[in-house]
Amino acid sequence: MPSLGDTVKDSIVGTVRGTGEIVNAVTEAVSDSIVTALKGTGTVGKTLTGAVADVASGVIQGTSQVGGDLGKATKGAVIGTLKGTKEVGGEAVDAVGSTVQSLIRKTRDVGGDVASGARQAMEGAIEGAARVGVSGVDAITAAAAGAIQGVGNIGTAAFTTTADVARGLIQGASNVGGDLGSAARGTILGVLRGATDVGGQTADTLSAAAGSVVKATAEVGGNIAATAKAAVEGAIQGAKEVGLDAAEAASATATGAIKGAGDLSSASLEQVQRAVTGVISGVKVVVKEPFKKTENRVTR
């Protein structure tokens, strides 16, 4: 009997070869497979974790086999997961995080564009949440955290990838009118949920992600001060979740946000500096480095 992943893969290969359409093909294949796998099990929560990983594998393998767009496949998979999970009474928001994490990991494993995958995953989370009637803010946060966790291996080699994924998440949220603050918060949560040492490489990764979030927010015409503050709030929440020093995590995130703003303009730096210093969520945020003001660049 074929595995769930093989069933999804075969369905995608057959449909895409026949029609060339990817988003709807993946949405339906994923939704149907999840319903079939989970209906009547009585243990949706436990079974869902394994089902999501199998489905993600099948989606990426099937799409790769036919030379399809992995980003669009990711979008369809997230929508399909929300649809199928909701139908069988599972926790749809939890499923979003697990699905996106698995999809980004599989995309990375096959050498795909993880930033594009993150952008499309965010679009899928927002559109799917609206379709099935779950909280868009919660779905955005879960998708962002899952994408960052999917990158894996927090450390020097992951800095650039993490920053690229963070940018993709903000772009995806913007493309479909999602809340940028929730995307920023989820991005930083994802870094910390995959972290073990806030005093070393994780602090650098937090800083890189926060800087990317601020720059991406400026690119899409969003409120950089609000998004930077949301990132720091995510750092504090995430640090408390995993038992790390919340003040250190907040400081690293604020530092990165200010660095990113400083690359934009003097006005941007001042806006973000005001937003991310002082007491946030009960934690005093102290930025440890001086920053130069850039006079010649323009921010939106």
Q: How many separate structural domains? A: 2
Name the helix and strand elements from N-terminus to C-terminus, one letter apiece: HHHHHHHHHHHHHEE
The share of residues in extended strands comes to under 5%
Class by alpha and beta content: mainly alpha
As laid out across the biggest beta sheet, the strand order is 1-2
Name the overall outline.
elongated
Q: How widely separated are the two ends? A: 56 Å
Largest sheet: 2 strands, antiparallel
Mean pLDDT: 86
Cα-based radius of gyration, to the nearest Å: 19 Å
Number of strands: 2
Task: Name the helicity range.
Answer: over 70%
The number of helical elements comes to 13
Low-confidence stretches: 292-300
Describe it for me?
A two-stranded antiparallel sheet has the order 1-2. Mean pLDDT is 86; it is low at 292-300. It starts with a helix and ends in a 15-residue tail after the last strand. The chain is built from 13 helices and 2 strands; from the N terminus they run H-H-H-H-H-H-H-H-H-H-H-H-H-E-E. Strand 1 (278-280) and strand 2 form a beta hairpin. It has 2 domains: 1-151; 169-300, no CATH class. The protein has 300 residues and is mainly alpha-helical. 74% of the residues lie in helices and 2% in strands.
